[in-house]
Amino acid sequence: QVQLVESGGGLVQPGGSLTLSCTHSTISFSINDMGWYRQAPGKQRELVAVTPTGGTTNYADSVKGRFTMSRDNAKNIVYLQMNNLQPEDTAVYYCNVDVWRAGGLYAYWGQGTQVTVSS
């Protein structure tokens, strides 16, 4: 069973920073990619950043240069460092992992963590 648990959300002023963490249990599964998504009120869930296994991280244009995704494989943690946060970054942020199992590709999601950017 794959489990993802996000943490690190909160309230921050515009221009501030937050680091989100996602602890995952994916031992025994073949990971296709890991990523961060977000969903603002009234909007669809959108990609923030995704890293294919063995590949480079792709970022949404809206966060390029401000957000950085990284992984600590020894600790099974994925991070999203968010700098220069703006009100439009306010959303619930979700950690995602796509794994291969039983010949198919399956997506798993964390419960989400709220990020609110407001003065």
Q: What would you say about this model in short?
A:
With 119 residues, this protein is mostly beta strands.
Give a written overview of the molecule.
- This protein is mostly beta strands and 119 residues long.
- Helices cover 0% and strands 58% of the residues.
- It is built from no helices and eleven strands.
- Strands 2, 4, 5, 6, 9, 10 and 11 form a seven-stranded mixed beta sheet that branches. The protein has a four-stranded antiparallel beta sheet with strand order 1-3-8-7, with no helix packed on it.
- A hairpin with a 5-residue loop joins strand 5 (46-52) and strand 6.
- It is elongated and about 50 Å long.
- The N and C termini lie far apart (40 Å).
Number of strands: 11
| First-last Cα distance | 40 Å
Helices, by number, come to 0
Mean pLDDT: 94
Are there runs of 5+ residues with pLDDT below 50, and where? none
List keywords for this structure.
mainly beta, four-stranded antiparallel beta sheet, seven-stranded mixed beta sheet, 119 residues
What is the topological layout?
Blueprint: E1 3-7, E2 10-12, E3 18-25, E4 30-39, E5 46-52, E6 58-59, E7 67-72, E8 77-82, E9 91-101, E10 104-109, E11 113-117
Parallel strand pairs: 2-11
Antiparallel strand pairs: 1-3, 3-8, 4-5, 4-9, 5-6, 7-8, 9-10, 9-11
